[in-house]
Amino acid sequence: MKILIINGANLNLLGSREPEIYGNRSFEEYLEALRARYPGHEIELYQSNIEGELVDALQRGDRAYDGIILNAGGYTHTSVVIRDAISAITTPVVEVHISSILAREEFRHISLIAPVACGSIMGFGLDGYRLAIEHLTNR
To answer: Tens of pLDDT along 87-104?
Structure first.
């Protein structure tokens, strides 16, 4: 199975950014562990802080991957264009958030992505990515 993980704005800072919320493990370290756990899967990572580049990655990923895991970061709450990109593609997209967006500031409570994703996972730390892989594998 081919899976594309797309991480949005500020997720390149995992391991150093607000460790009380996001932990102190870099995503690159976690990605190595994911790949080791799923040796039969091809798991690729794309990260950008730029909204349009995330849209481009979603469009490129359509039909090239069996599933996409998207953590859009703050764009979750603001980006109609990312929502529209997910609606326009056929590859299933699972929304992941490291923290529970419902337990944070009120402006984070609404996800524009959730209604067009095949599932949403939040609040399980980096393990949410593993849960998303399990979901995509068992679809």
So the answer is: 999 999 999 999 888 777
On the CB side of 13, CA atoms within 13 Å amount to 10
Q: Determine the Cα–Cα distance for residues 60 and 41; give it in Å rounded to an integer.
A: 19
109 is known as an active-site residue: no
Per the CB < 8 A criterion, the answer to whether 72 and 110 are in contact is no
Residue tagged 């923290």 (tokens): 99
- Active-site option among 30, 65, 75, 97: 97
What interhelical angle do 127-138 and 27-37 show, nearest 10? 40
CATH number of domain containing 41: 3.40.50.9100
Each residue of 53-88: pLDDT tens digit?
Answer: 999 999 999 999 999 999 999 999 999 999 999 999
Is 97 catalytic? The answer is yes
Ramachandran region of residue 126, left (φ > 0), alpha (ψ -120 to 50) or beta? alpha
The catalytic residue among 22, 46, 65, 129 is: 22
Range of the domain at 79: 2-138
Q: What's the number of domains the chain is made of?
A: 1
Q: Which two tokens stand for residue 112?
A: 């524009």
